[in-house]
Structures are given as structure tokens and as C-alpha cells.
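Researcher: I'm preparing a figure for a lab meeting and need a structural model of a single chain. I don't have an experimental structure, so a prediction will have to do for now. The sequence is pasted below. Please return the structure as C-alpha cells so I can convert it later.
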Amino acid sequence: AGGLTTAGQSVTPARLRGGRTEEDDAYENLTATLALRYAPDELTEVALTGRMIESETELDSLAEDPDAFETTQQRFGRVMVRRALFDGVWEPTVAAYHAHYERDNIDRPDAVSLINGVVLDTGDRTKFEWRNDLYLLPDHVVSLGVETEEERFTDNQNTDFGFGFVITGQSQASARTNAAYVQDQFRWGERLHGTLGARVDRHEAFDPELTYRFAPAYALPWYGLRLKGALGTGFRAPALFELFGRTANSFGGIGTGNPGLRPEISRSVEAGFDAAPGAGRFTFGAVAFATAIEDLIVTQFAFPNSTAVNIGEASIRGFEAFVAGVLAPHLSARLDYTFLRAEDATDGTDLLRRPRHKVDLDLRWQPTPAAALALGLHYIGAHADVSFDTGGRVRKGGYTVVDLAGSYALTDDVRVTGRLENLLDRDYEVADGFRGFGRAVLVGLDTRF
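Model: Understood. Here is the structure written out cell by cell.
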């Protein structure tokens, strides 16, 4: 079990406060987990896992709203039985999974805002799976499986914005998806290994969809060089709210789901390498990737109405590269860089909140076995966003955040830790209208017994 409570910081940037006093946005979280395993013999395993998460988050529906908040309750549970048969050649697994989610969003009138709103959402997901791992051939693990999953949701909302504009809605829907899959984890010789798999999904509202993935890797005998790649397709059925959600407002407009939506279909390819010359003291690598998404689902606004629609195609491409190594005795570093080009292929506009450039630099100094110090630099480049003020598109500049962390072992079982997050107290926004945290100092003590 674990718990966290913090008074937090205000998420409202100074430019949007309108002279109002800064008001911190608190957060509380309680998490409990359970894992039980029973092996009545060497061939059989029974496992039960569960997780419960309850949280409360203070929100700002408008700048520095003092009493808007959201509570969530999440429950997850899974039971699994596995047994090896025929001298381990066939290993079947039967599993059942259930997830329950509740989210309540409350905002009452106050001196800052006249909004009086209640949004209550619940969701459930139940899944049954039968998986069979077959060890018929050396260097191959073939997996065959079937699964069935049911998803349900309800949405009830009533929000009065205080100037004659009211949004109400009641939605409820469910859907079942059946699937079958096959996968081979293979190894040929000492150098080539990978996976090859295919899957068929049958969502009750759509025709069956076949997807596949092939991901090989080949190790060369020089400098620890390894070539790798992947080729595959993807499938995403529309969310239940995108299909069947419904709201109405007092201006005569409606927001409706679209039962005629088509699933999103994607095609992806990637290729890259990594190498470790110098007995692993120095490593580097890169991966280039490209993904095309057909029938991307977006929300289309035509005041006072809105609905979900499919647009033509989205294109996502770029590359990732890294280099890591030992710079000096007790000093190591790693640099990661990502270039990303994500756009609506129909008109060339950037997809939202996908920066073209991202850089992470980590330096680690360990002068003694007991002491360590780490410096992290994280850069997020400029990107398109949605204006908090107008709802239109805006261009957000990039920002850099620097973190510092350290630890010292007092004994073999006791360690002091410390972190300085946003060391330079940089003022930045993770999304337009939502401020990132300022400088924070955290000190802790770890022990084991």
C-alpha cells in the first residue's frame, strides 16, 4: 500500500490569472496492490493480482477556481491458471480480467466562477483469455490464443455556466470484441531472432480486421553491432463515447457520437541499429520510423453542434538516436534525441502537441560506491497546441527543464536521497494554459530490513 498527498502548485499561468491570488491545486492518492501465487506442483501455477487506486485532484475550470475537483476510483483484478502438459511441450493459460473505473468531476459556484457542474462517468472492462504456448521445435515458441472482451460505459452530466448556457447529457453503451492471434518467437542460430505474429479482431460494430507484426533483429560479429527492424499494422475501434455519446446545450446545439465512424487503421515500419564498441564502455544507436494512419478520428465543431468524424490520413515519421558512455573515471553520460514530423496528410498541418525536437541529457557522477549525483536536462521543442483562451490553434515555443538528484548510503541498509526538480525554476507550460511545476526540493530516506 502507498499514499501520497501534496498541497501542489497552481497550474494556472500568471498571464491567465487576471489579478487573482495564486491558488495551489492539491492532489491525494491511495494505492493498494495484492499479488498471490500458488504452485501446487512443478507443472502448475495459479496467480491472483489486484490493484485499487483512489485519488482526488483539485482543478481549475477557470483561472484559480478554488473548489473545482475530480475524484477517481479504479479497481483492477486478474486471476490466471497455467499448467505444463506433455512434458512441457504444451503450456495452456486461462485468465480472467476485470477493471472498474469511476470519475466524478464537480465544480460549484464561487467568487471566481459561476459554473455549477457535475459530470459522473463510470466504465467497466471484462476480459477472458485462453493462451497456448507450444514448444514443438527448438528455438521457437509458438503462441495461439483467443480472447473475448466486453466494454461498458455510462456518462451523466449537467453543467450550468452561469450565463444561460447549460450542457446536459446522458449516455450509456457497451460493445464486445472477440479476437484470435498467433505468434512465433524464433531464433535461428546465434545471430538472428525476433517475433512474427498476426491477430484478427472482431468488434461487434465492424467487420473483422487482420493485423500483423514482424520484428527481426540480427547480431553482427563486429563491435557489438545489432540490426533491427519492424513492420506491422494496427487497428483502433472508435471509443464508445465517440460512437454513442450524446450531450445537448441550451443554445439548441448537440454533441453526438457517430455510429457511422470507421476504425482507425495504421501501417508502420521502422529500421535501426545499435552498437557497443570498446567492450561496452561506449554505445550508440538510431531508429528511423514511419506510420500512416487512415481514417483518423477527430471531433468536428460546427457551432452549436459537434460530432466525431474520420479524416483522410495522418502521417507520423522521424527518427530516434542515442549515445552513451563513460566520459571519465566515475563519470558517465547518455544523450537521446528524437525528431518527429506528425501531420494531417490531407492539408499538411501539424498534429497537436507533438514537438519536432526532443532532447534528453543525463550525466551521472559516482565518486564512491556510497555516493552518486545525477544531472538531467530535458528539452521539448516548439509544437502546435489549442489555445486555452480561444480554442483555436496556437504555436507554443519550446522549453528546457533541468533536474538534479543524488543519494548517499549511510549504511548497507540505509540511504539518504534528494532531488531538485526544475532546478532553474523555469516558467513553462506543458499545454497551453497549464503551467509546469516550479522548483521543488525533495529529501527522502530509503531503508531495507
